Amino acid sequence: MLQRIKTHIAAIKERDPAAPSWLEILVTYPSVHALFFHRVAHRVYKARLRFLARFISQMARFLTGIEIHPGAIIGKHLFIDHGMGVVIGETAIIGDNVMMYHGVTLGGVTNDPNHKAKRHPTIEDGVIIGAGAKVLGDITIGTNARIGSNAVVTRSVLSHKTVIGVPAHEANVTALNRGEFVSYGTPCDGVTDDPIKLLNCLNQELAETKKRLAALEEGQANKDQVKSKTPKAS
Questions:
Q1: What single string gives the DSSP state of each residue in the chain?
Q2: What is 2-193's CATH number?
Q3: Where are the domains of the chain?
Q4: Which tens digits make up the pLDDT trace of 10-63?
């Protein structure tokens, strides 16, 4: 346990330039505290003491602002920078050396009462998830992938790829494709998304919406016409 804490703190110092000493990390970083509580809660959860496990996780949420379901499986050296508002669901699986920022959600999209069903994402090793990103459903985020801030991801992402936007789509970011570390998932000057392409997509969606609306109006008009010709019962 002591060795795991030491290597975890070393991993945080490597990725956070604002971390001057191991003592400050140990005492003041909510990520360290949340993961400590999770290790305890997860063991209790596996022992089928579900209520006690949830109680421990909710205490951790109260103290750190980070909500991790005790059923989630988390690998080594997860670093949740800042941490406030992070939610990690019951069947989420997180690999080694993953980094995420505040406001991230690893959530489900179904209400299947079967607790054995996989409802939450699998995050492979080395992934960075930017602030406010939502990764939803039983999908896989491949090794060293990058999720841009505030992205909404509902489909699997290949290894070494970067996705941004709502809904998330692949961005052309060469630095991240080489596996370099970039805070918040994407560099400020490295995203070369094509605005013309986005406008074309919006125009296409608008045209399809107009067609559907016209079809609905025509159908309603036909119904009204048939109704007007139907003789009323005396």
A1: -HHHHHHHHHHHHHH-TT---HHHHHHH-HHHHHHHHHHHHHHHHHTT-HHHHHHHHHHHHHHHS-EE-TT-EE-TT-EEES-TT-EE-TT-EE-SS-EEETT-EEE-S---S-TTS--S-EE-TT-EE-TT-EEESS-EE-TT-EE-TT-EE-S-B-TT-EEETTTTEE---HHHHTT---GGGS-TT-----HHHHHHHHHHHHHHHHHHHHHHHHHHHHHHHHHHHSPPP-
A2: 2.160.10.10
A3: 2-193, 194-226
A4: 777 677 777 677 787 788 888 889 999 999 999 999 999 999 999 999 999 999
